[in-house]
Write a structure and sequence with these properties.
Shape of chain A: globular
Helix content of chain B: 25-40%
Largest sheet of chain B: 5 strands, mixed
Distance between the termini of chain A: 8 Å
Distance between the termini of chain B: 60 Å
Strand order of the largest sheet of chain A: 1-4
Number of helices of chain A: 2
Strand content of chain A: 15-25%
Strand order of the largest sheet of chain B: 6-5-9-7-8
Structural class of chain A: alpha+beta
Strand content of chain B: 5-15%
Number of strands of chain A: 4
Oligomer: heterodimer
Shape of chain B: globular
Largest sheet of chain A: 2 strands, antiparallel
Number of helices of chain B: 16
Chain lengths: 66, 432
């Protein structure tokens, strides 16, 4: 099953935990908000992506079926 | 024996269809409305949906989505359904919805009643900004209908805060639910879960007016004006350098030239035309003047009809100054919910203001473009996307002016503002 990483931009407040845990897929913009690679999450990164989702203090990060 | 005059069926209208025939813009009473159009036929839901599909009616709120598809999506939702007539015209350069509600509210309200029946809704709302002149007119129309018992589902009036994005469909659903008029994260879209989590149809007031006429005169009549791929008439708001700015009804596919004639002709030499609104695009006058205004013609050029805004920028006014004023307004109108929009739009607005000032200090076209690409599609609604579209279009169409500014000069001979930009409540603004 392919998945994508998405952020709820309303819930997100630019804490940056996701970028720290998953720099392969998440970088921060000029104002500290996540810019997410919109393609399917590679197999090898699904585990780290799940951990990043769990670590978001605002539950703003999600994995959705692609 | 000939039939009495008052038993003859109404004649299917030519143009105008929505607006009064003789240009009298006083509000049509329920009696006037029934004289002109007759009563709403009691079409079963399936028949109306089929008629809307055959008619090819698309939304007149800007997105031009096929109406029958939206209605069918709501109708197939689980649980009680809700319909909302969206008259919250937050676009400063647009006056068509206000004009329609002020002159022919019963067309919209007929359309709303038909929508309620077609999707099986037991709640109906009319949503509009708190215009001191318009609210009493609309209340009077609702009172007339209540006394006459014409609406099986009573229509409740809900007012919108004076914000640009108050008419965004998830903001509408939020406000009608009793909360702030702030956009929500999607999914779910409002057709699945809108007002109080229920499947909700949010439809522009002009679209509903067209529905009311399709129900009476049929799909073939509807298609008798306008191009086959985007049939019917629509309301245009013509403003800027014209003698008599205002709202006019014309066939989809009319031209800027024809609309300017209807608006009393140009004052000054037209330079560029803003199409669609403040989330729209500029078109150089020589490229657009005689182009049929249909999405099929405009989209390949990166333009769109949108909600029918046609604003004429005259020569002698600096396009970059006008654009910067609009972008500042758009930045102030951010809901402030999403970081990229809340921070990105003010950065872009600051950059546009600098570009609008001739001379070398602080001007950075590259930064402006980079920020535009950075905020695109990263909000919960399309406010940042629309703003970016407008910014890119401004930089492209006014590229010559940009070069002049780079060298310290400007072509402007007039500094009087052209585009209407309201004073925003800013970050202490109300959202209810």
């Amino acid at each position: 099953m392919t998945t994508r990483l998405v952020v709820d931009p309303i819930a997100c407040d630019g804490r940056g935990t996701c970028a720290e845990l998953l720099p392969e897929l998440v970088s921060l913009d000029d104002w500290g908000f996540p810019v997410i690679d919109g393609d399917d999450v590679p197999e090898a990164l699904v585990g780290p992506a799940r951990r990043a989702v769990a670590a978001c203090p605002l539950l703003a990060l999600r994995l959705t079926p692609a | 024996m000939t039939a009495a005059i008052d038993t003859l069926p109404p004649v299917a209208p030519g143009l105008p269809r929505l607006l009064p025939i003789h240009g009298d813009r006083s509000p049509a009473t329920l009696a006037d409305h029934l004289d002109r159009h007759g009563p709403v036929p009691p079409l079963p839901a399936a028949a109306l949906l089929d008629a809307l599909e055959a008619a090819g009616l698309t939304g007149r709120g800007g997105a031009a989505f096929p109406v029958h598809r939206k209605w069918r999506a709501v109708a197939s939702g689980a649980g009680p359904r809700v319909v909302v007539a969206n008259g919250a015209e937050g676009e400063p350069a647009s006056a068509k919805d206000k004009t329609l509600l002020a002159t022919a509210p019963h067309l919209t309200l007929d359309g709303l009643a038909l929508a309620a029946r077609a999707v099986g809704a037991d709640r109906a709302y009319l949503y509009l900004h708190r215009h001191p002149q318009l609210i009493p007119l609309v209340r009077a129309a609702l009172d007339e209908r209540r006394r006459a018992g014409v609406d099986p589902v009573a229509v409740e009036l809900v007012t919108a805060p004076p914000r640009f994005i108050a008419g965004e469909e998830s903001a509408v659903a939020s406000r009608v639910s009793g909360d702030h008029a702030l956009p929500r994260y999607k999914p779910p879209r409002v057709f699945e879960a809108g007002v109080r989590g229920l499947p909700t149809l949010v439809q522009n007031v002009e679209t509903l007016a067209h529905v009311a006429l399709v129900a009476r005169y049929g799909a073939e009549w509807f298609r008798s004006v306008g191009p086959a791929e985007q049939p019917g008439s629509m309301l245009f708001t013509v403003s800027g350098a014209v003698a008599a700015p205002g709202v006019t009804e014309a066939a989809v596919g009319t031209t800027v030239r024809a609309l300017v004639v209807a608006a009393g002709g140009s004052t000054g030499t037209p330079q560029a035309v803003l199409l669609g609104g403040y989330h729209g695009t500029w078109a150089p006058v020589d490229q657009v003047w005689d182009l049929p205004l249909t999405n099929a013609t405009l989209r390949p050029r990166g333009w769109a009809v949108g909600a029918g805004v046609v604003a004429i920028l005259p020569a002698g006014v600096c396009g970059l100054v006008e654009a910067a004023r609009v972008v500042r307004y758009l930045a102030d109108e951010s809901a402030g919910q999403c970081g990229p929009c809340a921070f990105g739009l003010p950065s872009i607005a600051e950059a546009m203001a600098a570009l609008a000032r001739p001379g070398r200090r602080g001007r950075d076209t590259a930064a402006t473009k980079r920020w535009a690409a950075l905020v695109e599609r990263r909000g919960a609604c399309h406010h940042p996307d629309g703003t970016v579209r407008f910014v890119r279009s401004s930089l492209e169409v006014f590229a010559d002016e940009l070069r002049r500014h780079d060298k310290g000069s400007c072509s402007a001979t007039s500094h009087r503002p052209v585009l209407p930009v309201p004073v925003t409540a800013g970050d202490v603004g109300q959202w209810r």
